[in-house]
Amino acid sequence: MSPARSALDLLQTVFGYEAFRGRQGEIVEHVANGGDALVLMPTGGGKSLCYQIPALLRQGCAVVVSPLIALMQDQVEGLHQLGIEAAFLNSTLSLEEAREVERKFLSGQLKLLYVAPERLLTPRCLGLLESAPVALFAIDEAHCVSQWGHDFRPEYIGLSTLHERFPEVPRIALTATADAATRREIVQRLALEDAAEFVSSFDRPNIRYAIVEKDNARRQLLEFIEREHEGDTGIVYCLSRKRVEETAAFLNEHGITALPYHAGLDAETRARNQTRFLREDGIVMAATIAFGMGIDKPDVRFVAHIDLPKSLEGYYQETGRAGRDGLPSNAWLAYGLNDVMQLKDMIESGQAPEAQKQIERQKLNAMLGLAETTQCRRQVILGYFGEQSAPCGNCDNCIKPPTTWDATDAARKALSCTFRTGQRFGAGHIIDVLLGRETEKVKQHFHDRVTTFGIGRELPEAAWRSVFRQLLAGGYLATDSEGYGTLHLTDAARPLLRGELELHLRGLPEKRKRDKSERDKKRSAASLDIAPADEPLWQRLRQKRRELADAQSVPAYLIFSDATLKAMLDARPATLSDMAHISGVGAQKLDRYGLAFLDVLHGAD
Ligand code: ADP
Ligand code: ZN
């Protein structure tokens, strides 16, 4: 590649993209000119190009530090598909294969070399890097250096040595973790004090956020998938391994291909399931949060949570795995009273020191705030990350503003019944008392004689569960530290009880009628919007992509992303030079696959 080629030229010819996105252009220029950079961009924002293009512009080979050995092969394969010389060094290579990569590096054949941090810091590897020109160091998933963050990797700490051993080589650290504490720690631990910081908006406008009240999570999940995501790739996050297994089994029983992923599975099964998820179309992964970092599959159409996440940071990172290709995608969460109880109990009965518990409470409260809000969800999320925004028009609350009702009276009844029964019981029992149910437990504790027995008959049980959930989320009630889920009043409850405070809560849960017309409706606005008449051609394009991918044993999205196939479908290029203008069709892919797809588009295949 001649050094005279400009960054934009490379973007267009090699990657096949028309223009830089957001701050990509500035970042590329800064690093290509030898500057250090800290890049904060949301998942799917396009971080890879920020070091790949400078790698092509600068002399020598770029070294990319990545914690995810299992994914390096696909990353390198993606570059090969673009005609870029790249390789990786990690423990999956045999000694001979590693020697071969080293030889290529020394002879200057490589433009990018991916290395795991523990490998990079060995004397042998550092010695290797000193023997041939290094274009730059890219430190991907840079938040792994932070003990404050949630993915701390001790191996990352040693990376500050790069600065000392290679003072002339620019370094670019990249992460999708936004919070200020993590950012400060990255700067300090990687000695990036002089680096330029590029902070992008964390908004992901193509993701539609929706949070629903849980009554039967699995059933609701199934309806959601059938209604909006038939045949789509998705991830379903669950809190426990058991829930993961049950959910995967349930979806399979209902004709949706689902696989489990959690830390309790052996490494081989995990790797096999991950590979199938990446390579096949339309697999749903039921997983714990152990799944996902570094999964850069661009066409994940939905991320569902059937249990409440513990923090907004975690939730946003997980949902960010939807729609990296920029096409419409859904983030869907079902949550209810039990989630709140369970997470609060986990914190209170946990072994963590008080200071840690305090942090966990704050994080959970922010998540609860999002779940309960009647405002635009995106405004709340972005606000949490310090970003101001207008109502988005693409979340459940914007699309169908929730109703609120004056729940002052109901809340007082709930609080007073909690008090009258001695602040030693869980919500289920207190609701029985409110509804005047003469259960064994009610009789055993003589709760049919308390003044609040039966004072709540005007509301159905589901409404009471919603009231208790919101009182817990709002901090009027708290769980104790024994882990039995018993509730007591907090100081915040007093003004409510004394009638000094009004409480307006989200709408009463309606019994959800299964609306037939809803299911028959064509795919929702949040999916790809393929006209029915185009559906057969769309399927043939995907089929062609599948064949080409299988022949090389690579993931389908490395051939072309959904966004690129959709652009072909919409534009119907007639010739190779038309095809070259489709976003995502660079020179090498045009060469290798252009004709095959033209044939499909024009019925010759
Ligand atoms: P990140 O690492 O920030 O999560 P990626 O680098 O994987 O994001 O990019 C996400 C998707 O966006 C990829 O499919 C990538 O090819 C695409 N992309 C990146 N930059 C551009 C651009 N300037 N124009 C069009 N597509 C882009
Ligand atoms: Zn909104």
* Average of per-residue pLDDT values: 91
Poorly predicted residue ranges: 511-526
Largest sheet: 7 strands, parallel
What is the strand arrangement across the widest sheet?
A: 3-4-2-5-6-1-7
Work out the number of β strands: 17
How many structural units, i.e. domains? 4
- Write down the CATH topology of the largest domain: Rossmann fold
CATH superfamily of the largest domain: P-loop containing nucleotide triphosphate hydrolases
Q: What bound compounds does this protein have?
A: adenosine-5'-diphosphate, zinc ion
Alpha-carbon distance between the two ends: 35 Å
CATH architecture of the largest domain: 3-Layer(aba) Sandwich
Q: Give the class-level CATH name of the largest domain.
A: Alpha Beta
Helix proportion:
40-55%
Shape: globular
Strand content: 5-15%
Structural class: alpha/beta
Which descriptors apply to this entry?
6-stranded parallel sheet; Arc Repressor Mutant, subunit A; 7-stranded parallel sheet; binds adenosine-5'-diphosphate; 4 domains; globular; binds zinc ion; Rossmann fold; 605 residues; alpha/beta
Descriptive report:
With 605 residues, this protein is an alpha/beta fold. It has four domains: 7-199, P-loop containing nucleotide triphosphate hydrolases (Rossmann fold), CATH 3.40.50; 207-335 and 373-399, 3-Layer(aba) Sandwich (Rossmann fold); 404-506, Orthogonal Bundle (Arc Repressor Mutant, subunit A), CATH 1.10.10.10; 528-601, HRDC domain (DNA polymerase, domain 1), CATH 1.10.150. 45% of the residues lie in helices and 12% in strands. The chain contains 29 helices and 17 strands. Strands 3-4-2-5-6-1-7 form a seven-stranded parallel sheet, with helices on both faces. Strands 8-13-12-9-11-10 form a six-stranded parallel sheet, sandwiched between helices. α15 (337-349) runs antiparallel to α16 (354-372). The chain is globular, with a radius of gyration of 27 Å. Mean pLDDT is 91; it is low at 511-526. The structure holds adenosine-5'-diphosphate and zinc ion. Residues 376-378, 391-392, 395, 397-398 line the site of zinc ion (ZN).
